[in-house]
Write a structure and sequence with these properties.
The protein contains 1 helix and 5 strands. The chain has 68 residues and is α+β, with helices and mostly antiparallel strands. Strand 1 and strand 2 form a beta hairpin.
């Protein structure tokens, strides 16, 4: 099995959410806690799972992977 990775970034003080996919596509949205939960659920439904999360200040950054 091979893996592909994407990233999810959240700046909570400005409510900015950004997803970067391995295809080079980027998805931008706005939101707080509910939107992050919904985004993680949507990514999970697409087969993505979180493998790491780091934080600092007003920032959270997840690395997600899925097999293909």
């Amino acid at each position: 099995m091979k893996w592909e990775y994407c990233t999810l970034e959240w700046l909570w003080n400005s409510s900015q959410i950004k997803i970067n996919y391995p295809s080079g596509n980027e998805k931008l949205s706005q939101g707080s806690y509910n939107e992050i939960v919904n985004t993680l659920n949507e990514l999970g439904a697409e087969g993505w799972e979180s493998v790491n999360c780091v934080s600092g200040g007003n920032w959270l950054f997840w690395t997600l992977k899925r097999g293909f």
